[in-house]
Amino acid sequence: MASSKSTSNRMLYAGGGLLLVLLVAGGLGWQLGWFGGGERGLQVESERAERRTITEVVTAFGRAQPEVEVEISPDVSGEIVELPVKEGDVVQQGDLLARLKADDYRAAVERAEAGVSEAKATLAQRKADSVQARRTYDRQKKLYEKEVVSASDFEDAKSTYEQAVAQLQAARFRVESARADLQDAREQLQKTRIYAPMSGTLTRLEVEEGERVVGTQQRAGTEMMRVSRLGQMELEVDVNESDVVNVASRDSATIEFDAHPDRSFQGAVTEIANSARIQNEGSQNEVTNFPVTIRVLDNPNTGLTSGDEGAIARPEVPREGARSLVIRPGMSGAVDIYTETAEAAVAVPIQAVTVRDFAETRSGDASGAAAQGDGAAEDLRRVVFVAEGDSARMVEVNTGIADDTYMEITAGLEGGETVITGPYSAVSRELEPGMKIQTGEQEGQSGETIAMTQ
């Protein structure tokens, strides 16, 4: 009885195992096309090549700054005795910004005036001496010609006259020098009053009343304050060396500030640096960027537009506070520079474009691999795979500009073809010309697309 039960269990296990094998084999056979229809092919995704408007964009980051900003430093040293402005004030050209203690400079003017008076008195004396010496010389000359006086007496008179003339000329020079000293002293006195060099906003105030500042004629002294034209704002952004070749002056741009995430501003490229700015030079993280200046065309600080550049339509900010100031110096922002646009271009998804080695393709898989092992040169070309029925056809293409979604095809496709877009492993490695496929076409986004490069 036990033996019969054991035999029955063994048969049950064997039958179950056989059934499992049949199920696995059946599933594999279905995948390989053994039943009803042959080979199923590689499952791929596809999209139709369509004509689109593609705009290439270079994205960069920077900070806002006034187009015109003047650092104000004193030309003379002294103690600040009057400071009638505060940071944020709007000033007009010629407004008094600060006054330094002028006692020493006023005394210098008085000394210079006295020096001029003394020099003039000396000049008058030298003129009288010169007239007297001339008369003596003329008289001695006549007497010498009549042989009344000796030659030595005549020579003494002549020498005295020439000396008087030289002293007169020196006195004239001393008067001019004294006048120059007086003019310089007066200018130094005037420089104790510091006036606004232009109309604008006081964006930085570094000093306080009672503080001493240092001024020099040859180099900048203590920075006291800055006056800026906030109606003319710009951003200086760093553009990578690989992208700067695509940027040109007057390219349009869109600017977004971190402080205004729901608002964008229009801009234009005004300047591209000729020299690079290198970060982490000599290291593995070395980056080469070129500074590019972007002007804000629709600056809301003053309501100025690109047609009002250089004008100040109304006060830049209220005298009390600056809440209406939208773009402030130092604000960080992102800039999209529109470098090139392709209208009605044949475009495919970026992931549809891949690279194949045509040297290996011509030689065949085995011989191609051997050739590569022997160091044969590669022949890499850009291609797309077009779905034709249940097979894939490899098409060599030439590409133009690209955006973050689509790439322009300048040669190889006419538009309307169904190109294979995925999966990535299939497009980049697995697909071969003539390979059986199963497509799942995706609906592309028609219309305008914008390139994004960083």
UniProtKB/TrEMBL annotation:
| Ranges in coiled-coil conformation | 151-195
The protein's superkingdom reads Bacteria
Xref: InterPro entries: Beta-barrel_YknX, MdtA-like_BSH, MdtA-like_HH, RND_pump_MFP
The record places domain Multidrug resistance protein MdtA-like alpha-helical hairpin at 117-183
Question: Per the database record, which ranges form the Multidrug resistance protein MdtA-like barrel-sandwich hybrid domain?
Answer: 70-219
Task: Read off the Gene3D superfamilies from this record.
Answer: 2.40.30.170, 2.40.420.20, 2.40.50.100, Helix hairpin bin
Q: Which SUPFAM superfamilies match?
A: HlyD-like secretion proteins (SSF111369)
Q: Does the keyword Coiled coil apply?
A: yes
Name of protein: HlyD family secretion protein
Species, as recorded: Salinibacter ruber
